[in-house]
Structures are given as structure tokens and as C-alpha cells.
Amino acid sequence: MQNAASMHEAAALPYARANEQRQWMTFALAAIVLVTVLRVLGLAFNRTDLFVDEAQYWLWGREMAFGAYSKPPLIGWIIRAATTLSGGESTFDVRLAAPVIHGIAAAAILALGRMIYDAKLASLAAVIYLTLPAVTLGSLLISTDTPMMLFIVLSMICGGCSPNCRRAASRSIIQPRPIWCSVGAAGRFTCRRQPGPI
Fold first, then answer.
1. 193 domain residue, yes or no
2. Number of domain units in the chain
3. Quick check: helix, strand or coil at residue 162?
4. In a domain, 164, yes or no
5. Residue-wise DSSP of 51-95
6. Which of 103, 102, 98, 104 minimizes the C-alpha distance to 81?
């Protein structure tokens, strides 16, 4: 009888683990959605004006230039997309992309952690990232640092994915990791021209 009970426990163990993994993933996804929605709602009640940098980025986004003297182009493009999709150019519309990008970055951290280890660690990493003070502040403002973590995590996912994914990517003409790194660089780094005649 004891042998049959141990066989039943051994057969039920993978289902229990799968159920636990599913609970952790559900917890993390629910936390990401809830925190992101609360941050967007918080932006709706935020009465602060745009800071100088945010106003500059907004102006650059209206022109859709490939960058300015001191800043990269991606932040202007993101603000332009947010204001176009939301249909306005208020402070809320300009900053709207910040909490959404941080929510997507948390989901990407969840996916990366799941690929590397397990759902529990991935969930904890995503929730910890989402509740960091710098991320909380970064969700209330729009800056060049906002999309940086997202593209870092996306390039890590492309570099650390399963062997099947790596084999498929090696046969592909378009390599995802350099694309994410390049887009991330467009969000953080600038190419400065030396003063003088053109």
C-alpha cells in the first residue's frame, strides 16, 4: 500500500509544480497590470508641469528629427507616438508612455527570468523591478532612461533564449539582438557633431 501511495505522490508532483509555477506567473502578471494601471491613473491626477527636459523631448517629438545636439531621437519618437495615440498633447499624454514602458519592461524581465530559472524567481524579479524607487519615479516622468531597461532586457532575451531559438536566429537574415541593442542605443546615446563648418 505504501508503494502505491508513493507512486501516486510521484505522479502528482509534476502537476503540483506546474500549478505552483502557474500561480507565480499569474501573481506577477496581475501585479504588473495593476501597478501599471495605477501609475497611469496617478498620471491623470498629477498636476505638475513638464520639466525642462520633458518639454524639450516633446518639442523634438513634434518634429520627428533623428535626434538633437545633446539627446537621442527615440524619446521624441516615443512621446510623439504616445501623444498621437492618446489624441492630445497634455502633460498626461506626454508622460503616458513612461508607466507603460516600465510595465512592458517588467513583463520582459518576467519572461527572461522564466527562461533562465523558474516562475517564482522570474515573478519576484519582475515585481521587485516594478517597485524600485527609481522605476516608480521614472513612471511619473518621461526621460531618456525610460526605454533603456526595456531594450537591455529584450537584447538579453534574444541572446539567452533556447538553443532552438538561437538556431532559428542564426539562419535568419535579420538578427534580433543587434536590432534591440541598436534601438536601445538610439534611446540613450547621441552622435555629436564637432563645431565648425559643415
1. no
2. 1
3. coil
4. yes
5. PHHHHHHHHHHHHT-S--SSS-SHHHHHHHHHHHHHT--SHHHHH
6. 98
Distance from the Cα of residue 111 to its chain's centroid: 11
Q: What is the pLDDT of residues 39-60, one digit of tens each?
A: 999 999 988 899 888 888 888 8
What is the torsion angle, in degrees rounded to the nearest 10, for the CA atoms of residue 143, residue 147, residue 153 and residue 154?
-170
Distance CA 50, CA 111 (A): 33
Identify whether the C-beta of residue 110 lies closer than 8 Å to the C-beta of residue 122: yes
- Tens digits of per-residue pLDDT, 145-195? 888 888 888 888 877 554 545 554 555 544 555 665 556 555 555 444 434
CB 184 within 8 A of CB 155: yes
- Helix H or strand E encompassing 26: helix 2-45
Residue owning grid cell 514602458: 101
Query: What are the tens digits of pLDDT across the range 94-137?
Result: 999 999 999 999 999 999 888 888 889 999 999 999 999 999 99
The range of the structural domain enclosing residue 59 comes to 16-188
Helix (H) / strand (E) containing 16: helix 2-45
What rounded mean pLDDT belongs to the chain?
A: 78
CA 95, 100, 27, 106 torsion-angle sign: negative
Helix (H, G, I), strand (E, B) or coil at 147: coil
pTM for this entry: 0.76
Higher pLDDT, 190 or 18: 18
